[in-house]
Amino acid sequence: GIFNRERIFVASPEAARDLLTTNAYRFIKPQLQWTLANNISGEGLLIQEGKVHKEARKRFNPAFSPTMMKTWFPSLWRSTVEAL
What we know:
This protein has one domain. The chain is an all-alpha fold. The mean pLDDT is 84. The protein has helices at 13-22, 31-41, 50-60, 66-83. One of its GO terms (molecular function) is iron ion binding.
């Protein structure tokens, strides 16, 4: 793989769901990937691991419930269209 590292490529929605949700905590991000992502996006939810990630998700989940998304999605859509 790239930089002589093993990589996982998924080719189906079911495999992506398994990797990203069902078994997400079984796969730890390689140090190089973590460092690159951290330099680009900072130490946000996307690159957190384990207990820190679980606690952050618990705090953020209410904002992404279907009910809440219905309230803020129109504004997000308008802003996106205006930016394009």
